[in-house]
Amino acid sequence: MAVLPILHYPDPRLHKVASPVQTVDDSIRRLIDDMAETMYQAPGIGLAATQVDVHRRVIVVDVSEHGTALQAFVNPVILTRDGEAEREEGCLSVPGIYDKVTRAERITVQALDRHGESFTLEAEGLLATCIQHEMDHLLGKVFVEYLSQLKQTRIKSKLRKRARSTL
Ligand code: NI
Fold first, then answer.
1. Which of 87, 112, 124, 125 is the S-S candidate for 74 at Cβ 3.0 to 4.6 Å?
2. Is 134 considered catalytic here?
3. pTM, to two decimals
C-alpha cells in the first residue's frame, strides 16, 4: 500500500468528473487500499479518488472513532434522500477550512464493494454527510462551492498564499 499525494483546492483537477469503473479488478482493489492508507494517514474520515488525481468513481469512508469500519464504494449511486441536516464539514483537499453545509439527513446508497458485489446501505447522520461529500468530489465538486462567493474567494486566496509560503 502507498500513501498518495492529495490535491489541494483550488487545483483544477479537483473539478474533473470521474468515470464509472467497468470491472472491479486488482488495480481497483489496490486503489482502494492506497486511498484507505492515505485517508488514515492524513487523518480523515473520507476520501474520493478524485482527490488523489484518479478520475474513477471510487470513494472510501470510515467515520468510526478508531478507524475500524472502512467502507469502500465503487460506482456509488444515491437511491433515496430524506430530511435535511446542517453539519460542519472539512476536506483533506481544503486543509484548515471548516464550514456548515446542508445535505440530506438520510440516504440509501447502492454501490459495488471491493469484490465487485453490489450492496445497498442505509446511512444517516455523519456517515450520510460523509458519503454525500465524497460523492460530490466524483462530480468535480468541492464542499466550499456550497458557500457564498465571498467565502470562496477568501478561501482560495488563503490557500494560494499558504501554498506559496510552503515552497
Ligand atoms: Ni473532501
1. 112
2. yes
3. 0.96
